[in-house]
Amino acid sequence: MSVPLGHYLMLSAFLFAIGLCGALSRKNAIIVLMGIEIMFNAGILNFIAFWHYKYFASPTAQMFAIFAIAIAAAESAIGLALVIAVYRHYRSVDLDEMKSLRS
Amino acid sequence: MDTVYQFLQHAEEILRGIPLIGGLLASLYHALLGGAPEWVLRALAIAIPILFVLAVFPGIFAYTTLVERKALGRIQNRIGPNRVGRWGILQPIADGVKLLTKEDIVPRRADQFVHFLAPVLAVIPSVLLFSVVPVGAGLIPVDLNVGILFVFAVSGASVLALFMGGWASRNKFSLLGAMRAVAQVVSYEIPMVLAAVAVVMATSSLSLLTIAKAQSGGFLNITNWFVFRPWGFVGFVLFTIGAMAESARTPFDIPEAESEIIAGYHTEYSGFKFALFQLGEYLASIAMGGITVTMFLGGYNGPGSGPGFFGGLISMVWFFVKLAMMIVLNIWIRGTWPRVRVDQLMGFAWKVLLPMSIANIIAVGFWHYLTIRPVAWVVTTLWLAIWFSILTKLAGSEKIAQRTYRYAS
Amino acid sequence: MEIAFWIFSAITVLGAIFAITLRNLFHCLLSLIISLLGIAGFYLLLFADFFAMIQAFVYVGAIAVLMIFAIMLTHHVMGDEGPREVLGGKWWAGMGTAAIVAGLLWAIIRKDQLAQVLPAQGAGVPYTKFVETIGRALVMDWIVPFEAMAVLLTAALIGAIVIALEEVIRKR
């Protein structure tokens, strides 16, 4: 038949953990942003799973999901613009090299 | 798919209704599929549209290449290919054989996996686009609720193949071509989507079959086409320009212009992979032509089209006639207009097409709420004409000096 | 339909793992795209076809392209394979945190009553009206967040352009 809701919740929990691991352990700023995108997607998957299982008749969860996707897009745009600006200054996107507040 | 399934379920009665050979066809059907279980009919209902799409549209692609070369030849005052078979009819087959048997050269330092995958990823979205194009009354492979969104999602995914091809070749010209191609496709996607939003607003549905149905009726099934409305005409122009830029056809073929950047993102591809890139590009332009026909030119509607067996056949004929007209329009524009410069390209998309498409959306709003038709016509046409003149005045401010000829007189 | 869930979860989870583990930056991006398409597949399973298309359109068609441009503009020289070590300093802290989060969530979810719920089949809204419901909700009940999103996206657009612009160095 179909899977119980718990499967979707566990899946999104694992995806969140994977994204968190990537965002915290990698050196390259762009991969950190990719980890953040994976975390966003895990959260939105959670919203849609709850909508399907419990709140099928109301659009509230879908509204949350739409706004979350839009916010994720905006955040990703600004994050990548920041990465480009930082690259112009430091000549690298290596997060370990950006240790001081003065350039 | 649903239509094919219903046809298969009631096939015997429908076939018996055809004059002259109905009885024969019905008994043939009974012999083949008389006692077939449910899943066989379902599998056939899925397989038949897929086979139709895979057989018909690459065939159209093959002969489009021939028609294009002959037409470009005539525009340039020469005959196109005419050696392989009478009038060059077998030329596409010869081209296919040549490309298949060419040596497949991959640069040594290229990223092997991505280099291999890029041509495949260029073809997949183009073929997927055909699954939501209605070729006749009710004859659509999959009637998605969100058909138009599917079209744009898939053409957004085709951007990646361009970039993968350019990046994996480890060639500066390829990378430059890929960057320009991605910038061009992404910039022209937005006015295209907004022009489609105008149609969606007018029909309150994202499904392409519903949009085609909304254009039926009227005198000879023609007057209800959206291209004959003010906002529909502007939308048609915007969508066609966007579709030509999406599939990188002249005058927007900076990504693959031979005199500019060798061959852009497919420089390092030879043989079958190059053929796949060409297949992807032409199929995308044919699919976009089909979608333009569905959204603006009435889809399968024409005199004599309608539901039912013969109406369905006539509607298919009308669809392919209109698709052929769009392909000829593409070829004609390719043969006669020069290439747009890269900065002119971007300026055109962002400064002219995008505000025009937003004005078009507002025009559809006016059209919907002004229920007295003549007033709606006047207001909408005035609004669009005002915006068109403002935008073209603002954009066309580059003064070009009068050319002086030194030797020609 | 269960097999579809497992296939999509294999695609998504493997895509996410490769996206943060591979050495070549561009392969990471391709793997992320596969993962995002896997999530779009989940939305299709959950009857949210509008969101599946939005996911493919916004994430794969726009955000992934944005990342392509960012990678292209911040990559040193063509031909580099990337730094020798891909892990940042104190990487064990990151992996440890992720493991703790995953473990906690697993322990909570497996025993929860709510998590054993099977889907409520088709209660209320008919399938063909989903997009219309979303549209109506956006402009009637949820108009204020909608307009706030518009302002936020405009601010993000202008902000991203301003941040990424070249600084004009005035020569004195």
Descriptive notes:
The complex is a heterotrimer of chains A (103), B (409) and C (172). Chain A is 75% helix and 0% strand. Chain A has 103 residues and is mainly α. Chain A has one domain: Orthogonal Bundle (Helix Hairpins). In chain A, helix 1 packs antiparallel against helix 2 and helix 2 runs antiparallel to helix 3. The radius of gyration of chain A is 17 Å and the shape is elongated. Chain A starts with a helix and ends in a 13-residue tail after the last helix. The mean pLDDT of chain A is 87. Chain B is built from 15 helices and no strands. Chain B has 2 domains: 49 residues; 292 residues, no CATH class. Helix content of chain B is 68%, strand content 0%. In chain B, helix 8 runs antiparallel to helix 10. Chain B is mainly alpha-helical and 409 residues long. The model of chain B has no long low-confidence stretch (mean pLDDT 86). Chain C is mainly alpha-helical. Chain C has 2 domains: 78 residues, Four Helix Bundle (Hemerythrin (Met), subunit A); 46 residues. Chain C is built from 6 helices and no strands. In chain C, helix 1 runs antiparallel to helix 2 and helix 2 runs antiparallel to helix 3. The termini of chain C are far apart. The model of chain C has no long low-confidence stretch (mean pLDDT 82). Chains in contact: A-C, B-C. At the A-C interface, helix 1, helix 2 and helix 3 of A face helix 1, helix 2, helix 3, helix 4 and helix 5 of C.
Any key phrases for this structure?
heterotrimer; B: 409 residues; mainly alpha; 2 domains; C: 172 residues; Four Helix Bundle (Hemerythrin (Met), subunit A); 6 helices; 69% helix; globular
